[in-house]
Each structure stands twice: as C-alpha cells, then as structure tokens.
Amino acid sequence: MEKKPDPEMEIPLYFRCPISMEVMKNPVTISTGLSYEKKNIENWFNVYKKKTCPATMQILQNFDVTPNYTLERLILVWQERESKAIDNHPSSSISIKHDELVSLLTTIESTPFKVSSLKKLRSCIELGLEVRLDFVHLGGIEVLSRIITQVLIDRSDFITFRACEEALGVVYQLPISDDASMDLLSKPECMKAMATMLQHGSAEARYHTVTIFRNMSKVEYNWNLVVQDQGMDLFKSLLELVSDEIYTKASSCALDVLIDILSSSKQTRLKAIEAGAICVLIELLPDSNKSICERMLLIIKLLCECAEGRLAFVDHKLGIAALSKKILRVSICATKLGVKILWLLSSFHPKEKVIEDMLVFGSVKKILGLLHIEGQSSTKDNAVKIIKMHGNSWKKYPCFPSELKDYLRLAQDSN
C-alpha cells in the first residue's frame, strides 16, 4: 500500500514554535527577533529559569516578549486556506510567490535589515497582479503601514527613513480599492507619515506617495482632515511636483490629487490659493500639453470660484495672456474651461485692467469666434454674457474688433 504523505510536512517551518515544533496560536517575538508560542517561551524563562534564546542559545539581557500579530494573521490565513482545500485543488488566489511572501512578512517586522527585505518584497510584487492580490490578502498592507508610520517617531534615523521609502515603493503598486486597505492607509498617522514623505522623501519616494494618494482619490477619500493637519505644506509639496519637468508622471499624478482635494470644499481651495497655486499654474500653462493643460485649467477654474482665487489671478501680469493663448487652440474642454474662467473674472472682478487685457491679448476676438458655433452650449452662452457685459467698454479702445461692433449693433436691434 502506498504510504500517505505526512500532513505535518506541509506546515511551513516558520509557523512552528521552535520549542514544541507545533503550529503557534499566540506567537510572540523576543529580543533576538525569533518568534515562539507565548506559553512555551514564558515557561522557558520563568519555569525553567533559562536566560538564553532556545533556538540560538544566545545569552539574553532583555526577556520581554512582543505579540507578533503579523505572524498570527499569516498562520490564520494559511489555516483557512488549508481547510478550504478540497480534492487537492489549491485556492486560485495563491500565487507562485505565496511561500516567499509569507516568509518575508513573517520576518520583516522583527529583522533589523528591513530595507533589504523590503527590496526583495518589491521584486516579488513586480511579478504581476496575482502576486499583489495574494500579498494584500495576507495582510501585507497592514505590515507596510506600520513601517511607514515609524517615520513619525524618528524621521532623523536613516534606516527608518529608507525603510519607509521602500515600503511606499511596495504600496504604490498594490490595488487598494478594498475597504480594509483603505482603512489602514487612511488612518491619520499613516496619512501624516505619507504627507511627510511627500515633503522630505527622495524623488522616487515622492512619486510613489503621490501615486498612492491618486489611487486613494479614485475611491472617494475625504481629504479635509489631511488638509487641516498639513495645511499649506501639503499644497506646496504637490505644487512642487506639478512643476517637476523631469518626473512628468509625478506631475500628472499631483494634478489629479489636487483636483480631487480642491473639489471637496472651499476651505481646501483657500489653502491652495494661499500656497501660491494660481501663480504656479499660470506660469506653467503656456508650455503645457493637452492633457496637462485641461487639468490645470480645471484647477484654476475651481480656485477662481473663490474671490481670493480671482484676485490672485488678476494680480498676475501674465494671467489673461496665458489663458487667452489656450482658448480655441487646445481642445473643446480647454476652451470651455478657459471661457468659464474669463466669465468668472469679468463677472465678479471686472477691473479695468482685466477688461483691457482681455482685448489686448486676444480673448475678445476668440470669444467672438465662439458666437459662430451652431446650436446652444454653455461655452457659447458664457461668451454671449461676457460680450453683453463689457462690449460697450471695449468700444473705447482703438483695437476694437469690427466683428464686435457688428454683434453689438445686432444685439441692440434685437432689443
């Protein structure tokens, strides 16, 4: 008769207590970084009066034990999968790197060489979606969030800082659409740590962080608490990334995050205006491509819905000129946003300088061109409103367009 395989051989070695060799139920870690079943190691110290590590026989000075919740979770996940395995058909969610992921997660919190282990973890995660989903199911985001928040305790420690950067390099590749992952990353201490890395991390770490923020924004994250905690520093960091001509992917992500934050409340817009967002965007606008331009104009439009934003815009000497350059030259979306901004400025902040700049820099001529569009649209409606409001003022200037003169005559005749 064929001998049946010993089921004990299927138990991962790192799930066994080194003293009893049984699967641990309540694993704890001692000062050497090794984990044991709590009752076994306590008996070792207190009943047998041993002063060494059972596995290494290293003499100990510290006999404290720390619960290893990561290992406990991994054991529970493994037991759950084993109980569901029927007819030798493994769970489809187990990846080819499952055992390596378990091994890394088991040791990563206790080892002093976190950076090295996290780099190995990044290599595993890069292999594909199946591995990433397996990692998330194993509780990997919980482990990484604890490593990330350590930077709040001692940001000056180089090893802690580098471990945080590597952990962010793993998280940014992971799907975080599930509630459990979002709950972990959106905890105030974790968000504060990531905001700190957005300000002080390396270029790569800042890109990873802003990518994580963008992924969180896709699942309707509420940014108000983060803005209250970080204030202008958060916006200054995002605006620095927007201005980065080398890391264009980071710049694109930062724009998406800004749009999501600024859409949430007026208070967030006021903070962004105070941080100099209008000035930065106006100066970047002339050389922006279609996608970037549309998002910049959307942000400017959101900011100009506040009186403070409109004031900041008209105080910039190149504001109207940069805006006029993009109308009718980029896309329908860009034109719609550009005209909306002009309508906000000319309706709620109609300074003589604003009206003059609109004429001098070609805004009026482009607005007139929109009147020839067939049918009705909000863009055409705003163009008509602007001309009716300020057409008579523009008559005073020698560069007064003849088309405008004709339009005003028709408008008067219709009245």
TrEMBL record:
It catalyses: S-ubiquitinyl-[E2 ubiquitin-conjugating enzyme]-L-cysteine + [acceptor protein]-L-lysine = [E2 ubiquitin-conjugating enzyme]-L-cysteine + N(6)-ubiquitinyl-[acceptor protein]-L-lysine. Residues 10-85 form the U-box domain. One of its GO terms (biological process) is protein ubiquitination. Pathway: Protein modification; protein ubiquitination. It holds the Pfam family ARM_PUB. Keywords: Transferase, Ubl conjugation pathway. This is U-box domain-containing protein.
